[in-house]
Amino acid sequence: MKSRFLLFILICLVLISALIAHVGANVYRPTLTNVYFEKDHVPFNESIRFTINCYGYRCENIGCTALGDNRIPGTYTQDLVFSFFATCPGYGCRIFERHPSTSDMRIDYCSLEGETRSGNFVIPRYADTPFPECFAAGENISPVNDVFGKKYVRMNSRSYSCTQEREQEKERCDQYLITFDRADEKKYNVSDEIYLNQTHGIVSTPAYTECQHAIDQQFDCAQYLETLNSSSLILDEQGNVVSEVCSLRFSLPEGNQTPADPPRHPDFITSISCWFGWFLGSGCSV
Length: 286
Hints:
By secondary structure, the chain is an alpha+beta fold. It has four helices and 15 strands. Helices cover 22% and strands 36% of the residues.
């Protein structure tokens, strides 16, 4: 009984580590999606549950710049790489969601499957991206708290230049870092060590910390940040700045249809990580 319990704990730890790596590896953007369904060129003002599934392949790195990321069509299996589901109560509904980035995948096509009161429908291969109509809305905007409460600031050219100059100035603080051989690592506090490679590493010193702090005091780049009026921003229910606004526009097909693509379900680890992603409000990219 004890061995079974220990095995159960070990499996749980492995699953948790895997799903954290899967969810944490992606970047999520607070997004507002406006959804428009029409039928016979007339706004369809009934509730629709829909799912967007995109097929293609995962890249070896973010940006798909690796040599093996440029695959020839027909030489690989088109896997389910992205999935998004929502319920739209009526025409022009607004969905606030954190869309995962698609920069680590190649998408061949996306299809939409929906359900209305009168039946199911499918819109196959509508685009090669899940959200084909998007624009940036709140780039480089961050919430900050001061004595007056929360405010929103944006980095401009002057604050950016100040930040760049500050970081360049901090490079002279590197002279206070200690480079050591891994064979001598026991001489230093392990929590302070930053390994460069398998043979050498560096460790911080009080002089390095003081140098960094002095430069931060010298360059007060925050004074150049532009303060924005919150009424001019698009915020979600939690007060987060929406960084992207998308629109989905579809015409419902006549009659009920069956899905054009056979359902392809993600593996167990991906399913668990997606569940945690939705639970934490970060969305899901399978």
